Structures are given as C-alpha cells and as structure tokens.
Amino acid sequence: MTRAEHIQALLEDYSRQRTEDEADQERRLAEACQRAPRIAELRQESASLALNAMRSILVEQSQEERKAIAQRMKARGQAINAEIRALLKAAGLGEDALDMRYRCPVCKDTGYVGEAPARFCDCFEARLRLRQHEDGSMAGLDEQNFDHFDLGRIPEADGQRVQMLGARKLCEGYANGFPNTESRNLLLCGEGGLGKTFLLNCIFERVTSRGQSAVRITAFRMFEAMRQQHTGNDEHFDGFSALIEVPLLLIDDLGTEPMMRNITVEYLFTLLNERNAAKRHTVVATNLTPAQLRERYGERVASRLLDKSSGRIVQLKGKDLRQR
Ligand SMILES: [Zn+2]
Which CATH superfamily is 142-323 part of? Predict the structure, then answer.
C-alpha cells in the first residue's frame, strides 16, 4: 500500500470512529432521558432556541432589540445547560455524562488539527507510522521508535553511546510501564542533535501503540494553544484544556516558543501545576540547561520542571548525531 492509500484507509477509520462516538453519546443520552425525562424537554428547547431567535431577529427592525434577543438566547442556552448538568448529577450520572467522549481529545477524532491549512493530528501520524510499519513499507524512512534504535550512529567516544543506552533503557521502561512508572515526569535535557526528540517520539509511539492516550506537541504549537485560549479564540480547537487533561503529555523543544507577556510563563505554570496536582505524566525535551530554564521561566515553573520527587532528569551530552 502506498502512503496515500494508508491515509485514505485511516481517514475512513476515523470517520467510523466519529460515527461510533456519536452513537455512544446517543446511548448515554437515551439513558439519561430515561432517568430524568426533563432532560429530553430541555434538549428539545435547546435545539430550537437558536432557530427561534434567528426567526425573531429576522422580523425585528430595531438593532437594539435584535441584540437583546441574541443575548436572551445565549442566557437561556446557558441556563438550560446548567439545568441539564444539575439533573444529570441528581440522577447519579455525573455532570459530563452527555459530553462527547473522543478517542483523541485533541483532534476530536477527525485526524486533523489547526485551521486551514490543517495538518494531521499526532494521533493520526502515529497510527499512520504504525500502519506503514506493519505493512513493511517504511524502509528508508526515519523510524522513531525503540525497535529502530540504531546505536551504530552514536559515537562511542566520551561515553556517549553508554549514556544513550542508559537513556534509552530509562525511556523504554517508562513507556512500557506507563502509567505505573517509577517517576511520573521526565525531563530530557541537552543540546540539539543528541536524540532527545527521538527518545520523546519513541515514548509516544510505544505508549500509544499500547492503547494508552498521549499527546505529543512542540512547545511552539503548545504556545499557539495557550495564545488561543488567552484571546478566547478557542471555538474550533480547545487545545489547552486537552493538554491539561491528557494522561501523558510530551512537550518537545521547550524553550523555542515565543515569550509573550502574561501568556507563556503563566500558562506553562498553570499547565504543569494542574497536571502535577492531578498526578498526570509529563515528558519534556529541551535544549536549555536547568539554569537557563530558571532564567527563562522563573522559579515557580523551573521548580516544577526540575522537581526530583516527581520526575527524573535525563541529561544528554556529546556530539550532534545529525552531523554524522
Ligand atoms: Zn488526534
């Protein structure tokens, strides 16, 4: 199969998954309505709310009254949602019982992320690699997983190969054990070209191929999610909350994202702090040294990244592998 054929087949699989997601939500809805029939009425009202408001707006001449109609619609919509959540709770179902449950919260099982031009979600790329790998058509392509760990590429001098073997063992143990790992967090430190991204991708590939949920993201894209959250431009991509909630988050290239006042440090702190409080696993790769992390992000963020009670620091040193 060619890459294009694999992509086609995977997109069909994603489409089936979305149908399943919806059917699953329908089942939960049916059960909720059975336990609390009022929910069905509220859902009905909610569905006709926007349409009714639009009809009223169309026949209304006054600009002010149009605005008021839109506002009333929004307020009623919020009240309906609050009432539904309260009813769900009272019925013993949990407030989020009717929320969509996606296999991948980042792309909502579409396989795509971002606005046009959208790109494939990490979950899609990982499954594509897996398919191609199983198909044996990966020859010659860069393979970012533990099974294709080529030690021959790593210089023996100055203990670099031994060091990489140790790092690989640690990372593979982490990926195999997840979520029952010795340390909850990993910080992969070292200059560019020492294999940090490779190790991070290996962990991601192993954890996802074990059926666990993980998101891999570059610091740059993570910053985009933060910025969107901050500007309230979050309608199509509620990326930041997904980053807080995913069981395993892998952040690559921390330190390359733009430094924006009131955004970068504050959101990064919130992200790390919330994840730590919820005991979720985080893996970070960075070219920065611990001292540079302190300098760039301040003590609050640095102390969470460098905290030895919850995490391991893997320091890589040596020659740039890309130049060989
Ligand atoms: Zn996805």
Answer: P-loop containing nucleotide triphosphate hydrolases (3.40.50.300)
